[in-house]
Amino acid sequence: MNGKAGSSERNVLFESRLFEVVSILWTNKSTTPLHDHGGSQCFVLVLEGKFENVLDFGNKREVSTFESGQTFSIPVGTKHETQCLTLTGKTLHVYTPKLAQETVKLKFNSENSEELKNKLHLSQATPFEELKDLLDVMKKESISSGSPYFMNQLFSGSFPQMLMAEEFIAATKTTLATFEASPVLSAVENEVIEELSCLIGWEKRSGIAVPGGSAANFMAVHCARQNLFPKTKREGLDGRNLCVFVSAEAHYSFKKACAVLGLGMDNVISVPVDHKGRMKPEALDGLIQKVRDQSKVPLMVSATFGTTVLGAFDQVDELSRICKKHKIWLHVDGAWGGPALFSKKLRHLACGIENADSMTFDAHKLLGANLTSSFFLTKHPQILLEANDVADGDYLFHSDDPALDRGKLSWQCGRKAEAMSFWTIWKSMGTEGIGEFIDGLIGLRDEITAWIKMHPRLELIHMPDYLNVCVRVLSLDGAKDPEWSKIVRERLKEKNLVFVNYSSDTNGTFLRLILANPFLNFSHLEQILRWALEET
Ligand SMILES: Cc1ncc(COP(=O)(O)O)c(C=O)c1O
Predict the structure, then answer these.
(1) Residue 132 alpha carbon to ligand 1 centre in Å
(2) Residue of 530, 536, 524, 346 lying closest to 452 (CA atoms)
(3) Which one of 151, 155, 210, 214 would you pick to mutate in the ligand 1 pocket, going by the greatest count of ligand atoms within 8 A of its CB?
(4) Is the Cβ atom of 53 under 6 angstroms away from ligand 1?
(5) CA distances from 384 to 242, 357, 373 (A)
(6) Residue 282 near residue 322 (C-beta atoms within 8 A)
(7) What is the pLDDT of residues 491-536, one digit of tens each?
């Protein structure tokens, strides 16, 4: 891919049967010749500089510019040329021959269940060559969560750097229990925790990578319990009711945590929310008092940063004042909304976050890391050791420094390198680059909400603060069928067009669009809604 003027240097970073990741260094005005990628889909992430990309559809040309942190994709079979507009530039390209658009699968064909089960049967050895083919077949049957039309969860797609990280993890297979077995990956985990804590604004800090946001929320309840009742670690719970306060829109993992940790899920107190889905501070204050009056113990408040359905941000500043008054541990569940800390457009939502005692952060949702890449972060440097170390395992832990042997801060023994794929993405995009990526999605959100508001058959459920766009589809005859959005969702999945989730309010069901895919653009969003409107 030599430039017309200037030059470009192409480096293949990762190659496999499914993907190829290439980095390109550009000089001013260097331009690719007009080309397509055969049957491959090509995704481009701009790491540095500004670029003009021309898509040539034969009968029309579409010109767009992209800056650092932005992404674009070249549809299969479409010709394009790209030019660097700045003195130097850097881009990362992922070519996915096997994931080209025609193979996108958003619906599992249950008629294939029996055949699949037979293929997976383990009794007989399969020769290596056949195994590779079998994996290809299995891949084809899997749901294409990398497609911009996959929005069923709070993740969609990933940054290509993630693949390099996963290859690294597999090649250096190790456990994050001790420093001597994982010096590099322990340092990686430390670095991610340090930098996330800096973004929060904590001077003192500690943290641990955990398998998922739910696990981080478990750790929060566990640490709050250790903080208030350290003796429980040895002696067990003493029959007191320890209460955890969450908003009515909070994630169910707190109920699970209280069930598993022996606190009892009835001791999770649901606090009412306002019209935006945010916990009402005065209601929290009242409920804490009520619990005290019943001789129960308020243990922890968890504010949600980005609720699962509406993407609401609880007001940490106000909640922290209440927690301070009542001397209660304040946790922030930022599994979905935590990345707002990187964004210039969203940072105001995190006002007062430095007052929180702990936080959950997932990089596998919005930030395109592989599942799972989650962190429990706290400003109490000793609490993880106090809560999790059992002064045992001498056969394994030979160092006196728990900061090095990170397994002591965890309830796990073998630990996967959860931080690695996020570190790789962060390292290549920089803190600002990640912020720009999120701000780009916010721009998309503004465009699509404006579009929805103009449409007579679409009802925007609320003006989103974050990247959840909740929209009710009204049927063509105008009759208010409360189930209509759910029916539309099922039909779009059945047709293998879109895999989007739904929820409901008092007026019926609505679609929940999640803006998370690094290669999502306005046309995808518009297309999803047009398809939804075509259903009658
Ligand atoms: C607000 C919130 N917290 C926690 C979780 C759990 O995260 P994970 O799926 O990583 O366990 C979710 C999952 O969607 C969530 O939306």
Answers:
(1) 33
(2) 530
(3) 214
(4) no
(5) 20, 12, 19
(6) no
(7) 999 999 999 999 999 999 999 999 999 989 898 999 999 999 999 8
